[in-house]
């Protein structure tokens, strides 16, 4: 199969869809890989390394799209990339369509087949292509929160660990999944007093067993949220309903109850955010202040540690890329229910029930559509 890797063009996004090592694996299996020039340059993956792995360097994104059937990226396609998609293409990348009506419309109009990393599943019902980035974003969320709590970051001037005779900061983690568990681990390590909330008792039980009395686990109810929002110095939003828009747990009214210049790091912003007041920010300008609460809402946090993130993402993506390339797109989708769960748009039709539900529109059953195409 002909596989294309364009250079990422989102704000401060230095990750790349395939590493030179991944390219080598695909070439070894008889595929062709077209890489846009300097796609990995910023993180040390030079054109020479791709060429040594057997990749072909293309001068522009247009060339990559023209040569390739399977496009492997990191971030959701930007408008200039959507313009290059045709029915010949399968796009394999993060899509986060639920909160993005316009992108959904334009992908449907392109006629391309679009598989979202974040809804591919595994045997345990987990999200193996989201997990590596969630691990990283969870760890970074505490760093971002700690910095935003500093005076210079706009925050209330509080150190997570506190000091002798001065209490540690109160950190509230909403959602005890991959982001939540990683944020919790770093926040505990940095000496904060941490409370984690979830609606999944098994998740809370696991963390309770792991951390004992070093963290407080709390079943997520409106009352618990009202109480703890008012106490928190740093809130980390880490909830997810897979494939769907994030539930808006943090209401505008909570902001008034919060401490002045407390911080919300809304990691769930890529699925629309779990605070009513959240709006997407970028690494260039990561925070804004509303109602005296500092909001950090960067939708591509792992892009800041692009080398670590690219390597971690490739470990997870490569097996699925190999399946798609070796078996062909349709046959791979039809024989692997986990890959099929990633299919959001197929040749001009929306096939994700979660995206359809979030946007109040209709969808076509994935398998039925594949078997009649
Ligand atoms: N901003 C960024 O750069 C990045 C954002 N993310 C996003 O972070 C979010 C979390 O991802 P993961 O941790 O991998 O998901 P996950 O599925 O591992 O965990 C989500 C948790 O939220 C819980 N939850 C759902 N509804 C809840 C509610 N009403 N109250 C309390 N808990 C609730 C679930 O039970 C689950 O334990 C996703 O939106 C993901 O896309 C992930 C990586 C990077
Ligand atoms: C998951 C995601 O949105 C990211 O890594 O940028
Ligand atoms: Mg994102």
From TrEMBL:
Catalytic activity: L-alanine + NAD(+) + H2O = pyruvate + NH4(+) + NADH + H(+)
Gene3D superfamilies named among the record's database cross-references: NAD(P)-binding Rossmann-like Domain
Keywords: NAD, Oxidoreductase
Membrane-spanning segments: none
Domain Alanine dehydrogenase/pyridine nucleotide transhydrogenase NAD(H)-binding residue range list: 149-297
Highest taxon above the source species: Bacteria
Residues covered by the Alanine dehydrogenase/pyridine nucleotide transhydrogenase N-terminal domain: 4-137
InterPro entries, sorted: Ala_DH (IPR008141), Ala_DH/PNT_CS2 (IPR008143), AlaDH/PNT_N (IPR007886), AlaDH/PNT_NAD(H)-bd (IPR007698), NAD(P)-bd_dom_sf (IPR036291)
The enzyme's E.C. designation: 1.4.1.1
Native organism: Thalassolituus maritimus
Name of the molecule in the record: Alanine dehydrogenase
Enzyme class label: oxidoreductase
Family according to the record: Belongs to the AlaDH/PNT family.
